[in-house]
Amino acid sequence: MKYKLLLLITILLAACTESNDLSTTDDVNPSSSSPNILLIIADDLGKDAANGFSEGSIKPSTPNIDAIRNTGLSFTNFWSYPTCSPTRASILTGKYGYRTGVKWASDEINISEKSLQQYINEETNDKYATAIVGKWHLSGNSSTFNPEVMGIDYYAGLIRGEAQSYYNWLLTEDGAGTIETEYATTKFTDIATQWIDQQEKPWFLWLAYNAPHTPFHVPPSEMHSQGNLAPFSSGMDETPYYMAAIEAMDYQIGQLLENMTEAERNNTIIIFIGDNGTPNEVVQSPFNFSTAKGSLHQGGINVPMFISGNGVMRSGIDENLITSSDLFSTIAQVAGVSSSEINDSKSFKNLLSQSETIRNFQYSEKDDGTNSIWVISDGNYKLFKNANGNEEFYHLSNDPYEQVNLLNGTLSPTENSAKATLESQLSIIRN
């Protein structure tokens, strides 16, 4: 069944890439400029745990995610933030974390911020139905916050960052919470499917799975290939449980797509991302405990992004420097908004149909209450600056996993020039 489903998705998504080139128009009214938009966010999924990347030796079986990647674009230089909340805030607002105050997990978004969903509908005369299903994690420890106050038509999911159990968790809908015992990944998919079925106009669905975030657990057996796993307890090998959660998410993505009509699938663009790097407990070489989730090293912020479906006319690997905030303008343009830049966000919609350079520099940051650090890269060199004055400087082209801090030696004239340029751009970004 899994391989039949893979074949079905591959055929359908391939068909999508042969029609409806979105790059030819920014008009609001024509139906061809109104594709459905499906943004899927996997929680704690780094390159080392995703197929299509050389990092990591243990990979999950993910035929549905692989089909999205194989029939569209794989972005190798996509930067998120090192934890989930700031990545989500950057997509929601198109702003860097220091502007919104969301720079670490559990930081709270100010409800005065204009959300992507609100922006789209203000600019397109309410052309789109919008929903967020799944993890929110932008309201601290609140269990009753309703994201709909930020201009989102519908929200249902887990408001807090982590479920106590994937089989015993608090589902929030319309600002009210109820205890849910259905496997969380399945429940999110069911809610998303039902919402899609109810729509009568183009839709934008932000589907944020908690998987494969902790707690480590055993998904329903039909959803994974990790064998007969015992209930997880401390001291056990976490990796098969982590892989099982990824596979269960993939299974449910397949269920969601299979439940859509052929016409709806053909009119849908799919964006799949990881929100930050792999958790420290299960990180794989060439990354390590200190360069994975929570870190501004590549293992913490250089995460998967695959885009396929309606309007995606290219396939293969794209090496553009992209940041998570860029999804704001990109999704807005796909929805028919004419502007290609807003706040800190630059649209890369053109890359879906043609090769060009979008950014010359990319930026990320963290402030965990102890360390305030910023990073900037031109794709060749990468500079870390700490608020306390400490710096690190790496030549990514020669040292992609940041093993040699160039500041421990004498910089060459070329390196000095590159560092000065990055410092200048960092000053501009943080102005």
UniProtKB/TrEMBL annotation:
<protein>
    <submittedName>
        <fullName>Sulfatase-like hydrolase/transferase</fullName>
    </submittedName>
</protein>
<dbReference type="InterPro" id="IPR000917">
    <property type="entry name" value="Sulfatase_N"/>
</dbReference>
<dbReference type="InterPro" id="IPR024607">
    <property type="entry name" value="Sulfatase_CS"/>
</dbReference>
<keyword id="KW-0732">Signal</keyword>
<dbReference type="InterPro" id="IPR050738">
    <property type="entry name" value="Sulfatase"/>
</dbReference>
<keyword id="KW-0479">Metal-binding</keyword>
<dbReference type="InterPro" id="IPR017850">
    <property type="entry name" value="Alkaline_phosphatase_core_sf"/>
</dbReference>
<keyword id="KW-0378">Hydrolase</keyword>
<dbReference type="Pfam" id="PF00884">
    <property type="entry name" value="Sulfatase"/>
</dbReference>
<feature type="signal peptide">
    <location>
        <begin position="1"/>
        <end position="20"/>
    </location>
</feature>
<feature type="domain" description="Sulfatase N-terminal">
    <location>
        <begin position="35"/>
        <end position="337"/>
    </location>
</feature>
<comment type="similarity">
    <text>Belongs to the sulfatase family.</text>
</comment>
<keyword id="KW-0106">Calcium</keyword>
